[in-house]
Amino acid sequence: MTTLNLQVGAGGDDGHTFYTPPSDNPGTPNGFTSDGTDLAVCNFAIVDGYSYTPYLRFTGVSGLSGQTIGSAIFKPYGFEADTGTPQTLIGADDQVSPAAPTTKEEHDAITRTTAKVTWDNCDLSTSAFVDSPDIKTVIQELADSFDPTVIQLMWDDDLKTDSDNRSRMHSYDGDTAKAAKLDIDHSAGGVTTRRYSLPVTGVG
Question: Which of 3, 40, 65, 106 could cross-link 52 (Cys pair, CB 3.0–4.6 Å)?
Fold first, then answer.
């Protein structure tokens, strides 16, 4: 088993899009930032409030093509206590080496992996790295499709209500030591055995 220990390594490699109601932010209700001190993970008051959708980009990925992913754990560092009951989905940008988005339009146009993992009640209040559920199915999809050199996780809302349900995590710009991590255990894929039925031919 081989382990990749990855961590967001640049200010532009984590960020989030946001929606704020025009009454609170006249003229610019939609936006994007990659230089805040923290990332709002699922502050989703869709109708009357705010919604945030973060991305986390990990470089230095190698050796995953054709591998079996044993486990993959995403590790954000908690910034403050959760509010409400966040319900989220973790997927990934479905590309071999995705660039970090620089606008809300680029972020929203990203194609997610088919595989996604539910993470509800994230509990990022511990001022420590918090383990996500295992997202190996997400990473396996990438390893089966490409030889990825970059993995960009996309953390999306799965509640979509007008109530306040949010988590917040540290960003690279807020504290580089508390930037999100991604640990992947992988091993060589299994050998495929093929069996053939051949006709018996007589001698004569």
Answer: 40
Classified as helix, coil or strand, 192 is coil
Question: How far from 162 is each of 26, 46, 67, 78, CA to CA, in Å?
Answer: 20, 5, 42, 24
Q: 137-165: per-residue pLDDT in tens?
A: 999 999 999 999 999 999 987 766 656 77
pLDDT score for 181: 98
With 90 as the cut, is the pLDDT of residue 33 above it?
Answer: no
At 175-186, the pLDDT tens digits run 999 999 999 999
pLDDT value of residue 8: 98
Q: What is the mean pLDDT of the chain?
A: 84
- Between the alpha carbon of residue 15 and those of residues 54, 55, 144, the distances in Å are 6, 6, 27
Q: Which of 42, 31, 12, 44 is nearest to 179 (CA)?
A: 12
CA-to-CA dists, residue 104 to 17, 71, 72, 75, angstroms: 6, 31, 27, 24
Model pLDDT, residue 52: 78
The pair of three-digit structure tokens given for residue 170, joined into one six-digit string: 């540290």
Q: Please name each of the domains of the chain with its CATH number.
A: 2-188 (2.60.120)
Euclidean distance between CA atoms 109 and 16, whole angstroms: 14
CB contact at 8 A, 172 and 14: yes
